[in-house]
Write a structure and sequence with these properties.
Blueprint (H helix, E strand, L loop, with lengths): L3 E2 L5 E3 L2 E2 L6 E4 L5 E4 L9 E4 H4 L10 H11 L6 E4 L3
């Protein structure tokens, strides 16, 4: 599970496990979709709500795509789940 820490090591937020009845559908290399509850490293999928994502402060030297992604998520309703999928 990923921990989101501030610059002094204090946990800012903790991802939640996806509900037992949910799966993530992702395409494989052949273009077919598969359902999974684990990321590419075999770790159970987790999520955070969009409203909690606002607690994350990016460093000034962050990539533009990361800043843009966060700006998009910050515009979503607070209770929108954001699945954390590491590949």
């Amino acid at each position: 599970m990923v921990d989101f820490m501030d610059d002094i090591g204090k946990k800012v937020l903790e991802p939640l496990p996806i509900p037992a009845h949910m799966f993530l559908q992702i395409p494989n290399l052949d273009g077919e979709e598969k359902e999974t509850r684990k990321d590419d490293y075999g770790t159970d999928l987790t999520f955070i709500y969009a409203g909690d994502f606002q607690k994350i402060i990016f460093p000034e030297d962050s990539l533009e795509r990361d800043v843009a992604t966060k700006a998009f998520i910050d515009c979503l309703p607070d209770k929108t789940p954001i699945v954390l999928f590491w590949y």
